[in-house]
Design a protein that fits this description.
The complex is a heterodimer of chains A (377) and B (901). With 377 residues, chain A is mainly beta. Chain A is built from 3 helices and 29 strands. In chain A, the strands form 7 sheets. In chain A, strands 2, 3, 5, 8, 9 and 27 form a 6-stranded mixed sheet that branches. The longest helix of chain B is centred in the N-terminal third of the chain and has 17 residues.
Chain lengths: 377, 901
């Protein structure tokens, strides 16, 4: 069995059970400041390396998208005097073109100049050896969740790794797990319900390649495929809720054993056919480690009713003007990646068939793409 | 010059009927004679005695014949319109007095007392001087004693002639008072005892014995009785006595009467919420309260994260609370002292009590092991909240299969070796556990054993010796096979102390020494399964010792002025075995900045601190009903509770002062004005304070506190200040009694180096503390509907406390992350709540073998959803959404039943 709630949440539950309640609350806060967010990294793997620049967002449930900052000049430096300019590939997103590749032992930093002249610079971040993932495994774990109508199974595969820490005396490591599944939808079946009509209107999504045409009998409408569907099959990425980092404080001998790096919910969407687990073991400098550690604490403590005051993230990007507020991290990592597939057959029971979704898979699933990932077999 | 004619001690039941001296018949010869001669003649020709002062009767002649009439008629006629009156002491003793208003008042008072069943004893010391008037004073000494067991009763209050003057017995049950010769009513009060009136005729120095009788064993409750008599007279500034009194009147949370909640109702005391352990006193943090149980410190006073206090009110004799003017015998915590005395068993007969509430049930018994010599009081309280938790409909399936359990138990054995020597043993144990479905169990325990030896060397010199050990530990057990491990924490304090009490004329002197030895196991993690990936991790044990010498003198300079002055000299030393890391930058310690390590051998001094703590308070009576009080104290604190949450949790850790952590030091000044009406029906107190604290400990943002070998890198020290004014209005008598407390106070902190974000909080600027609540109002009342029915209530209002909230968001690596405001710059909405209670007592007939009482409480009567905290849920899009959590967000009725047998 697995634990779903922290003990503090449990306490919340106890009290809520008796009499407590949770209500949204609003604070009268000023609009988000002109705050710049800069993030990016360089690895020992071939590029391109990406840097994104955004503005801060309001704390509102309807905040959905980043507000990118286009038109900046971004430049990458190493400690050997090499320089490479980033190129803006989409607004606010900048990529290298392959002149510099990260190497273990080197240090890297960036300089950013915005259109309005504000400039920012990161402190040099050393690229450290990161160790190697020895094995990637998973284990079926039973669980339940309660919905309004009662309890439902909420089983997962817990994902674990064994790995070696790097040669560096300080083993600051981050494990980044990304899950990917394939899904099919039926965008040609998209309909619109009309209140005063007895039948809904068939309105196939254009990307489905289908169109409506009059039924040959003269009564009703039929669907006709006129070109291939380009939004019927998607690969959906699932990201971790918070970064997982550790040092070697609690683990002896420079080896990490049975480290839980994430979990995969068992359901008929994630396991439409199979599920791809990708785990990256990334070396970090202490600054980057602290950044991700605080980010994790913030993400975790957000739901802690005892409300530890959350940590303010301090990265390594500073502004040349102290008045400018910036949060940024440009870090260097060596990466060891392990990819494996969890087959649907490994689930110890039969899943119900997946409901056909009458919508474009790109619209229905966040973080979805119709491009098959290179690792997908 | 005082003349001692004779001293006698008479205690005769009051009689109101029968043939008396006043019925003496006159024959008419009295006409034209001086009244003094007439009375003299009656006295010499009868067995009756008549006391008066000659000069009172100078010039009074009997101007008509009273043949066939009684002496009463004569006196009534003669005294009509004069200041003279008379009192019939026994059937055969007549006392003439010169204050008729007092005589009438006394007569009324006695009538009222008789109707209430209050026992009245009459005592005559000496006899009136026949001849010249005398305004000489007499010195009355006395002892307050349990009528049955012969126990001397310390700190009983004795009220002289209604509210004119109140004295209290000392810790040996003795008292002394100087009064002009005359007639007095002494009203004696003591917790759990029935009131007693002494009708005293004092014409010479003398010693009186006041024997009081225990009340019938009825339900008891902690009731704040503080200021009623004490504030006006002898009480020190900032001192409150909470007494375990006859009935559980106050409305309660789920029917559980709670000692700490009573403390929280006092002015100057706040709490961060319903589910918060402990309380904050005058801008102090929770760890700054010294909680003593029969002389030993207790490090965790809560069950279920503060929902309940871990002291069963049925096991508590009385509680003294100091929030200012702390006497020198207490030290080690800078904000307040809560001194709890466990209940002693009865030396004569067995009795018991059982109670059933919605969360807990309790049983307590007490009685003699050897009659008159040895007694025991024991009680156990436990929960069945598992049932409650599991029966609740909740969105969390895990809850329904979880376990919550706690108990507390206490036993106190008292052995009277002889009249002057008493030995007590107190054992106390409190245990909490809860297990989440699946794999983690949390347990925390307090265990305590104390020996107290009271010794009376002579009437004015006594001592109390204490030896004991107190232990607090918790463990967190992870039962998940892959990560199975147990985290243990333990703190043990061994305590030795000797306190001596000496009375010298107007001085009451306390002096002594205390020695504490602390042993900390700050954390040990060990795997509990073969395949666990946890490694053994053991933080070094920490040892320290604290020695303190203290001296305190209460000096009654005059009838109006009482001074208290004291000095405490604490010495604290952190000792080896220990390793200390040295850093390249002492202001900004970080693991990567370690330059060297210092090693200390066993018992080798690591760091020591010597302090001087002056204590001072005074009480100046402006009049018989009002007084002015002032207090100053300095206190050092050597143990710091390290927590990074708003509310203290049981698994936070205590960190001793040492190489890096300097002791906290608090200086507090307070001053107040206290007054009440002549008849003591209404009272008012106003008190202000200013407090400055050095070396407060606070955590850096995102600090990791558990199993941290470099905890000094996560904590910062700074200063704090708090100030405020407290106003209290009381109505003490009548069908409706109650009090209104209002406090305005602020509390701020400044931590770290200004401008250095890494080595400061809030960039080194001052910020309000988590528990900074400017306005706090508490109103509570008790309305007597009938003799057995009471309607009680409490209303609480508190300003919303400060919180730190996100101002903006950004998306980093596919996670939304918040950018937070500076610490505590926003506030949650204000807190207010109304609780109501109905108490239905069982029969008052003492002959019934058992008595039951129903208590119906309505908590949060108007369903206020008070925010306890703000946390952030995550929307479907991954956006953090602020939510407020109300611990008790609805009306919460409860019923409890208590049975005394």
């Amino acid at each position: 069995m697995r634990r779903k709630l922290s003990y503090r949440l449990f306490f919340l539950a106890l009290i809520l059970g008796v009499a407590g309640c949770v209500e949204p609350i609003e604070f009268d806060v000023p609009e988000p400041r002109e705050q710049i967010i800069i993030q990016g990294n360089i690895t020992d793997q071939p590029g391109p390396y990406i840097v994104t620049i955004d503005e801060g967002l309001a704390v509102r449930p309807d905040t959905v998208a980043n507000t990118p900052v286009p038109g900046a000049q971004v430049r990458l430096y190493d400690d050997q005097g090499n320089i490479e300019d980033f190129e803006e590939i989409v607004p606010g997103t900048y990529a290298t073109r392959g002149a510099i590749q990260g190497e273990i032992g080197r240090s890297y930093h960036i300089k950013v100049t915005l259109k309005d002249g504000r400039t920012y610079e990161s402190t040099p971040d050393p690229l450290k050896p990161g160790g190697e993932i020895k094995s990637l495994s998973w284990e079926y774990e039973q669980g339940t969740a309660v919905e309004d109508f009662g309890e439902i199974p909420d089983d997962v595969f817990g994902v674990y790794i064994d790995s070696e820490a790097g040669d560096d005396p300080e083993n600051f490591v981050r494990w980044r797990m990304t899950g990917t599944f394939r899904i099919e939808t039926r965008p040609e079946l998209y309909i619109v319900v009309r209140p005063y009509w007895d039948r809904p209107l068939m309105l196939p999504r254009p990307c489905s390649g289908h169109r409506t045409a009059p039924h040959p009998s003269g009564s009703g409408t039929i669907l006709v495929q006129v070109e291939p569907c380009v939004c019927c099959e998607c690969w959906v990425d699932l990201y971790e809720n918070f970064p997982r980092v550790t040092d070697d404080r609690l683990v002896a001998g420079g080896e990490f054993r049975n480290v839980r790096v994430g979990e995969v919910n068992i359901n008929n969407v994630n396991f439409y056919d199979k599920f791809m687990v990708k785990v990256e073991q990334m070396s970090l400098s202490r600054v980057a480690y602290d950044f991700f550690r605080l980010m994790r604490i913030q993400r975790e403590s957000a739901s802690n009713i005892f409300q530890p005051p959350s940590a303010e993230l301090v990265g390594n990007v500073v502004s040349t003007n102290p008045e400018d507020r910036v949060i940024g991290l440009f870090y260097s990592s060596s990466i060891d990646t392990e990819v494996k597939f969890i087959e649907r057959e490994e689930i110890p029971y039969l899943l119900t068939p997946t409901t056909q979704v009458p919508e474009s898979c790109l619209l229905h699933y966040r973080n979805s793409t119709t491009e098959k990932p290179p690792e997908w077999q | 010059m005082r003349r001692h004619l004779w001293i006698c001690l008479l205690v005769i039941p009051f009689l109101s009927n029968g043939q008396t001296v006043l019925d003496s018949k006159l024959n008419g010869s009295e006409k034209g004679q001086r009244l003094a001669l007439v009375l003299d003649s009656i006295q010499s020709n009868s067995p009756f005695s008549i006391y008066y002062l000659n000069d009172w009767l100078n010039g009074i002649e009997v101007n008509k014949s009273y043949a066939g009439l009684s002496l009463k008629q004569l006196l009534d006629d003669q005294f009509n319109g004069t200041e003279l009156s008379y009192v019939l002491m026994y059937d055969e003793v007549l006392v003439l007095i010169r204050d008729p208003s007092f005589a009438k008042k006394k007569e009324e008072e006695i009538k009222v007392a008789q109707s209430l069943g209050i026992k009245i004893d009459q005592v005559i010391l000496g006899e009136p001087v026949l001849g010249n008037a005398s305004n000489e004073n007499v010195t009355i000494t006395g002892t307050v004693m349990d009528w049955v067991s012969g126990d001397l009763l310390p700190f009983a209050t004795i009220q002289v002639n209604d509210s004119l003057r109140v004295i209290s017995s000392d810790n040996q049950g003795r008292f002394q008072v100087e009064l002009p010769k005359g007639n007095y009513l002494l009203k004696t009060k003591f917790v759990d005892y029935e009131d007693k009136l002494i009708d005293l005729l004092a014409y010479a120095d003398g010693d009186i014995l006041i024997e009081v009788e225990k009340e019938a064993k009825e339900l008891e409750e902690v009731v704040v009785e503080a200021d009623r008599e004490q504030e006006i007279s002898r009480a020190k500034i900032g001192k409150t006595v909470l007494t375990v009194k006859e009935m559980k009147y106050a409305p309660s949370f789920l029917g559980e009467v709670d000692l700490v909640r009573q403390v929280q109702n006092l002015p100057g005391v706040t709490t961060v919420g319903e589910a918060a352990t402990g309380f904050n006193v005058r801008g102090g943090s929770v760890d700054q309260n010294l909680i003593l149980y029969d002389g030993l410190p207790v490090f965790n006073s809560s069950h279920v994260f503060g929902l309940l206090t871990s002291f069963n009110p049925d096991a508590v004799e009385n509680v003294t609370f100091y929030k200012g003017g702390v006497p020198a015998q207490f030290g080690g915590r800078v904000s307040s002292v809560l001194d709890i005395e466990a209940k002693e068993g009865d030396f004569e007969e067995w009795s018991g009590k059982a109670g059933i509430g919605m969360i807990t049930s309790n049983v307590s018994v007490n009685g003699p092991i050897q009659k008159g010599k040895t007694s025991i009081a024991a009680s156990v309280r436990s929960t069945y909240s598992n049932w409650l938790a599991r029966s609740v409909r909740t969105d969390y399936a895990d809850l329904r299969q979880s376990n919550v359990f706690f108990y507390d138990a206490t036993a106190k054995i008292t052995h009277k070796i002889d009249e002057d020597n008493k030995l007590t043993f107190t054992g106390y144990s409190s245990h909490d556990a809860f297990k989440l479905v699946g794999d983690t169990t949390y347990r925390w325990n307090t265990n305590l054993a104390a020996f107290n030896y009271d010794k009376q060397f002579d009437k004015t010199f006594g001592a109390k010796f204490t030896a004991g050990i107190t232990n607090y530990d918790y463990n967190v057990e992870d039962e998940n096979v892959r990560t199975a491990a147990k985290l243990k924490y333990r703190l043990t304090a061994s305590v030795l102390s000797a306190t001596f009490f000496k009375e010298l004329e107007e001085h009451k002197i306390d002096f002594g020494a205390q020695f504490n030895y602390y042993n900390f196991q700050p954390g040990r993690l060990e795997p509990t399964s073969d395949v666990s990936n946890a490694a053994v991790f053991d933080l070094d044990k920490q040892n320290s010792l604290e020695l303190a010498l203290f001296f305190d003198d209460s000096y009654e300079v005059s009838d109006r002025l009482t001074l208290n002055a004291g000095l405490r000299i604490p010495f604290f030393m952190s000792i080896g075995e220990a390793e200390v890391f040295l850093y390249d930058d002492n202001d900004f310690k970080q693991i990567t900045g370690i330059t060297d390590t210092l090693s200390f051998g066993a018992f080798e001094p690591v760091k020591s601190y010597l302090g001087l703590e002056p204590r001072f308070s005074l009480n100046y009576k402006l009049s018989e009903t009002s007084s002015l009080k002032m207090g100053y104290n300095r206190i050092f604190q050597y143990l710091h509770l390290v927590t990074n949450t708003t509310a203290v949790t049981p698994i936070d850790i205590w960190q001793p002062s040492g190489y890096y952590f300097e002791p906290q030091r608090a200086d507090q000044v307070s001053a107040g004005f206290f007054t009440n009406s002549l008849d003591n029906k209404v009272g008012l107190s106003v008190e202000g304070f200013y407090k400055h604290i050095d070396n407060l400990v606070d955590f850096k943002d995102g600090a990791q506190l558990t199993l941290n070998t470099h905890i000094e890198t996560e904590l910062l020290q700074g200063t704090g200040r708090a100030y405020g004014a407290e106003v209290s209005l009381m109505k003490n008598t009548g069908g409706l009694t109650g009090r209104i407390n209002y406090t305005y106070s602020r509390t701020f902190r400044t931590i770290g180096i200004p401008g250095d974000r890494n080595a400061s909080i809030n960039n080194g600027f001052e910020y309000p503390a988590n528990f900074d609540q400017p306005h706090v109002l508490n109103v509570n009342w008790k309305l007597e509907l009938t003799k057995r029915h009471f309607f009680t209530g409490t209303f609480t209002y508190q300003s919303g406390r400060p919180v730190t909230i996100p101002l903006s968001l950004f998306n980093f690596d596919n996670n939304f992350v918040a950018f937070f405001s500076e610490r505590n710059q926003f506030r949650i909405p204000d807190y207010h709540r109304l609780d109501l209670g109905l108490v239905i007592e069982g029969s008052h007939n003492k002959r019934k073998w058992a008595k039951g009482t129903w208590i119906i409480s309505i908590y949060n009567a108007y369903s206020r959803q008070n925010p306890y905290t703000v946390f952030f849920g995550t929307s479907d899009l991954g956006i953090p959404e602020p939510f407020q959590l109300s611990i008790i967000g609805t009306i919460l009725p409860s019923v409890s039943y208590n049975l005394n047998f």
